[in-house]
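Sample entry (226 residues):
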Amino acid sequence: MLVIGYSASSAAGQILQYLQRAGEATVKDLAALLGVSATAARDHLVHLQAKGLVSVRAERHGPGRPRLVYTLSDEARSRFPKQYDRLITGLLRELIAQEGADRVEQLLERVSRRLADEYADRMAGTGISERLDELRRLLEQRGVPAEVAEDGDGIRLFACPFYDIAQDHPEVCSMERQMIEYALGEKLALESTIREGAHTCRFVLRSGDIPLSPRRTSVASDHSST
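Predicted structure, serialized as tokens:
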């Protein structure tokens, strides 16, 4: 399997996958991951920075040199995942351009139901924990790494299936939520999104009426929970 042009088992591929799931890492973290020296890990990061796939920021904790923290760049995020979003994103762009903003929500709801239909047979006849786990497997088969919450109350996606188009049309976040709702047969709250700066899209089981847009105040909690 390739990860943005790198073998998943290569050092670069492992770093990209780790950053996708963990959100950020230090040289020490990545050296431990790869089983190499800090110097060797830093060399891999320099290569990925030169390719525009990794960003770095300095964090100061008390006196001394600041700590360097590495994350995926916007370019890298836009290239995760490919096999899931290429056709759907193209179709959505065309629909939005031709139908206009007034019909976007209606069209996206129809797309959500069609996507959910792909998973319907696999979801039937199981409890919510089994359906969540099956949904995770199905998403990962489509190139979207995901994780079921430890307490079984939701699921997190480590890549935005529609990252490019979501920048201009946040309505697709609601479409993804609706698709998962239809597949699970449960109502969900969208508590954080990659589009708004979190490193995961987090969906949590809820009862009653659910707002169509994510709650912005929850973005910070997404970082603190990982």
